[in-house]
Design a protein that fits this description.
About 30% of the residues lie in helices and about 25% in strands. With about 425 residues, the chain is of the alpha/beta class. It has two domains: about 325 residues, ANL, N-terminal domain (Rossmann fold, 3-Layer(aba) Sandwich), CATH 3.40.50; about 90 residues, 2-Layer Sandwich (GMP Synthetase, Chain A, domain 3). The protein binds adenosine monophosphate and zinc ion. Adenosine monophosphate (AMP) binds next to β7 and β12.
Length: about 425
């Protein structure tokens, strides 16, 4: 019988043994980190060395690392090895200020590929699958991160890249793609192209699994994608500072994302006080790498807000589960005195069956008054409906959003495709107030 685990022993290690492994690996990580100029002085400042680490909780004696630190010490301040050992870098776009860059040696790339393979295996992907990776290759980690994992697992990989929906559909049909990875906002657009070709992805492709991630989405959005494509869709979480994808992944029970605790120490802290919050409570995710040599990161503040799901998973893996990301400690906006997370608005919109696949929140200021304009694409046949129907729907959505976020939006229904599309992740909020 084949196992449901990629690495049975590691994935089901007792909590006690898992913590022992974490302590051992944290000590090693501190050794590597101490070779970088940034951590060398940080560790000296706080006076903690590997010898002071006796249990996982001792990590709290160490300082946090922030994105700003990475930027300030660009390009080599976090590098722990000689440059000749490095075989790859990934970096963020960095439109403002320095980019954030992460370096990898051979060990790091192999470890990441294995975590990715483990993640995919956990979601039920097998070496018999044909895997289409619909995602940008290059500096963004989703392309090569998945690619190496797919190959490590042994699937037939199709490195399709992002965009060009007609080609994506042709690839799916030509090679009988069974699994695809894409960002959730793209899958809505791709579905519209299927529809315009009079194709039904549930019937006219061999897809059985989708892997979706890299941007926040709700469970409702996932279920919608599953219905559209007639597949199971699994949530994949990662961030470039922690390699990229392969950090936390849903298993086939779809009840939270197992975060690989042999490779990362996970803390959830109150973003204000930076004190740990109990399991089950939402806070900011803080992560430490445990199996990275070239560019270890200690207590990295991800700014993602989530919680540990208490209790065991039915799949038997001992690695704890993260809940889906509910927002960021830095993406909340305040409108008319109300704190709003874009996710709350998305949740309302996804419950409205007439709503299509895209929306855009624009925050603006008119005569010193804050405005929240929510443009919402409605489905094609609906947009052609008469004015009274559209008017009624506008009012309904306005009320629902106001009830949810307590601020009244200006809702504008627009036709499918009216909201400008971006190449990568969907832009959900435009804050024009910052210019005034
Ligand atoms: P990047 O480093 O550009 O890959 O962006 C990483 C960020 O994307 C994370 O810190 C999260 O805010 C977001 N992200 C990645 N995966 C997910 C996911 N599955 N759900 C929600 N947000 C995600
Ligand atoms: Zn599980």
């Amino acid at each position: 019988m084949t196992s449901i685990y990629w690495e049975p022993e590691l994935e089901t290690l007792s909590r006690n043994d898992l913590q022992k492994l974490q302590v051992e690996r944290l000590k090693k990580t501190l050794g590597f980190a101490g070779e970088s100029s940034f951590y060398k002085s940080k560790l000296q400042e706080c006076g903690i060395s590997a010898d002071d680490i006796k249990c996982v909780e001792d990590i709290r004696k160490l300082p946090f690392t922030t994105k700003q630190d990475l930027r300030d010490h660009f390009p080599y301040g976090f590098l722990s090895l000689d440059k000749k050992e490095i075989i790859r870098l990934h970096s963020s776009s960095g439109t403002t200020g320095n980019p954030t860059v992460i370096y990898h040696n051979r060990h790091d790339i192999a470890s990441w590929a294995n975590l990715m393979a483990r993640s995919l295996y956990t979601a039920g992907v097998r070496d018999t699958d044909v895997f289409q990776n619909i995602c940008g290759y290059g500096l963004f980690t989703g392309g090569l991160g998945f690619q190496y994992g797919i190959e490590r697992l042994g699937c037939l990989s199709i490195p399709a890249g992002a965009g060009n929906s007609l080609r994506q559909i042709k690839l799916m049909q030509d090679y009988g793609t069974t699994v695809a990875h894409a960002i959730p906002s793209y899958l809505g657009r791709l579905y519209e192209v299927f529809e315009s070709m009079n194709l039904d992805p549930a019937k006219d492709t061999k897809l059985h699994t989708l892997v979706i991630g890299a941007e926040p989405h709700t469970d409702e959005q996932r279920r919608r994608i599953e219905d559209m494509y007639g597949v199971k869709a699994y949530n994949s979480f990662g961030l470039s500072e922690m390699n990229g994808p392969g950090v936390a992944f849903e298993c086939t029970y779809q009840d939270g994302l197992h975060i690989w605790e042999d490779a990362y120490i996970v803390e959830i802290v109150d973003p204000e006080t930076l004190e740990p919050v109990p399991d089950g409570e939402v806070g900011e995710l803080v992560m430490t790498t445990l199996d990275r040599q070239a560019n270890p990161l200690i207590r990295y503040r991800t700014r993602d807000l989530t919680r540990i799901i208490p209790g065991d998973c039915a799949c038997g893996r001992s690695h704890r589960r993260l809940d889906r990301i509910t927002g960021r400690s830095d993406d909340m906006f305040i409108i008319k005195g109300c704190n709003v997370f874009p996710m709350q608005i998305e949740k309302v919109l996804l419950k409205v069956p007439e709503v299509g696949s895209d929306y855009l929140i624009t925050l603006d200021r008119q005569n010193d008054n804050d405005e929240m304009i929510v443009e919402v694409e409605v489905k094609k046949d609906w947009f052609r409906g008469d004015i009274t129907r559209l008017d009624k729907l506008t009012k309904q959505i306005t009320h629902q959003i106001r009830d949810e976020v307590l601020a009244k939006p200006i809702v504008k229904l627009v036709e499918p495709g009216a909201i400008p599309k971006t190449e990568g992740k969907a832009v959900r909020v435009k804050d024009l107030r910052k210019r005034s």
